[in-house]
Design brief:
This protein is an alpha+beta fold. The chain contains 19 helices and ten strands. It has a four-stranded antiparallel beta sheet, with no helix packed on it. It has a three-stranded mixed beta sheet with strand order 1-2-3, covered by helices on one side. Strands 4-8-7 form a three-stranded antiparallel beta sheet, with no helix packed on it. Helix 2 links the parallel strand 2 and strand 3.
Length: 471
């Protein structure tokens, strides 16, 4: 292909200067110095000012125009030089506003050119004009410029809520650009995901910026959405505020109690100190939230010892739960601290934790007597928690399978084995021991031993029933 100057000018006539509607050839911006050396082309572009915001975009557009309209083989990239009619200003003058920027019509610009215009406006402190340009057109500017325009416009608008400024402020924050003005503004007005709000809160606390009610809003959102990562940290910050909501505090401890009791999520001692104070302060303890009593009693079951006050409190809690028909395997551990009815301590227990609406089918067999599994009942004791108590004698082993009923299907969810050799079974005075002794006497046909064991069992049962009537 033969290259000549008019061919180059014809290609460059397709490049328009932003905001004018004229091409760079008719505006006299192409210098009369076009040089052609084989496929290599070079020339100069003339601009009025060295601070023209469109220098880079026009140079790029000229390169693209030549390669598009003439051919890819033309070597033009990096061969266009820039000259200006005005000399390079001194630093002081360079920082002065360039008012011609305000005369440029953004409707005649493409996306990249609007971005350049907006960046130029911000760099010259035309913040209101840049704000208007950004609101009207989508311009993806640099994060530090989002910060600059937000910081200025927040102060201009006296911190009034502006969704656009909130979005831009958070965009800058995500990229690591923020200041006290923007942080303060985000804490007061921003509502995003729990993770986003926590990041803002943590930064604000570290920077000693006012957080307004962000802790309260975030805490409520975490509990409502179930996104509870960092909830303990947020609650700790919330409790340091002068004014807190009793309802929100109670909701937090209810959540922590449920997570601990239902899902084995560890909880700090602070949770149980709060639960103890709630129980101590409440005269009619039967009216307390059941999950508080369950969480606290399970916590007590894991302690090596209970002092006098705690032991008394634990006994009251256990009595309330028993009166409501609630029995759980951990009650046997509570037997170290308080009175648990012997007919509970004597029995082996199977527990399954499902969902609130779970329907279960229990299949068991007791070895060595039974060879086949058969259906058995399993009581729903609390939300999604099912328990089966069963008397097992010495040497017996209970194998079980728990199925969840899902539509017409049965899905095996857990299985296991329980043996009849609990610690309480070794106590000579327990009713369980007496049942074992009666079974042994029957097998050995020892009538006198059987009679003694039966009499002792009946007497012991009568005494226990009388004691519980008094309680």
């Amino acid at each position: 292909m033969t290259l000549y100057p008019n061919l180059i000018l014809e290609a460059l006539s397709t490049v328009r200067y932003p905001g004018t509607g004229k091409n760079i050839v008719e505006m006299g911006m192409v210098a009369d110095d076009i040089r052609i050396d084989g496929n290599k082309v070079s020339f100069s572009l003339i601009f009025q000012r060295p601070t023209d915001p469109f220098i880079k975009s026009i140079v790029r557009a000229a390169e693209v125009a030549i390669n598009t309209h003439i051919g890819e083989e033309v070597e033009i990239k990096g061969n266009i030089s820039v000259t200006t009619l005005q000399p390079t200003p001194e630093k002081k003058k360079e920082e002065e506003p360039l008012r011609f920027l305000l005369d440029i019509d953004p409707e005649l610009l493409n996306v990249d050119q609007r971005k350049e215009l907006c960046d130029a406006m911000i760099s010259r402190s035309y913040m209101k004009e840049a704000y208007g340009l950004l609101k009207r057109y989508y311009c993806k500017i640099e994060p530090e410029n989002y910060l600059r325009i937000c910081s200025r416009m927040i102060l201009e608008q006296m911190y009034d809520q502006d969704d656009q400024l909130l979005n831009w402020g958070f965009l800058a924050f995500k990229k690591g650009y923020t200041d006290r003005v923007v942080l303060d503004y985000l804490c007061e007005h921003y509502n995003g995901t729990s993770r986003q709000m926590y990041q803002i809160l943590a930064k604000a606390v570290g920077s000693r910026v006012e957080t307004y009610d962000m802790e309260e809003r975030l805490l409520a959102q975490m509990m409502f959405s179930g996104k509870t990562d960092q909830i303990d940290r947020v609650f700790s910050l919330y409790m340091k505020r002068k004014k807190t909501s009793d309802l929100l505090v109670k909701a937090y401890f209810t959540l922590k109690s449920a997570q601990y009791f239902l899902y084995d999520v560890p909880a700090d001692d602070e949770v149980f100190r709060y639960l103890e104070s709630m129980v101590y302060r409440t005269a009619e303890k039967e009216k307390l939230s059941t999950i508080y009593l369950l969480a606290l009693s399970r916590y007590y079951a894991g302690l090596e010892r209970l002092d006098g006050e705690r032991r008394t409190l634990c006994q009251k809690i256990v009595d309330i739960l028993l009166a409501d028909g609630m029995v759980f395997p951990y009650f046997k551990d509570l037997g170290r601290h308080v009175r648990i009815p012997e007919d509970i301590m004597d029995k082996a227990m199977i527990q399954y934790v499902g969902q609130k609406d779970s329907r279960v089918d229990l299949q068991i067999r007791i070895l060595p007597q039974e060879k086949e599994f058969h259906g058995d009942s399993m009581k729903r004791v609390y939300q999604g928690i099912f328990v089966r108590q069963k008397v097992l004698f010495d040497g017996e082993k209970l194998e079980y399978r728990v199925y969840e009923l899902k539509g017409e299907q049965k899905v095996l969810v857990t299985e296991g084995t329980v043996r009849g050799n609990r610690q309480v079974e070794e106590e000579k005075e327990s009713r369980f021991h007496l049942l074992n002794e009666m079974s042994m006497c029957l097998n050995l046909k020892e009538e006198e031993g059987l009679k003694r064991a039966m009499e002792t069992y009946v007497k012991k049962t009568a005494v226990i029933e009388h004691v519980f009537e008094l309680i």
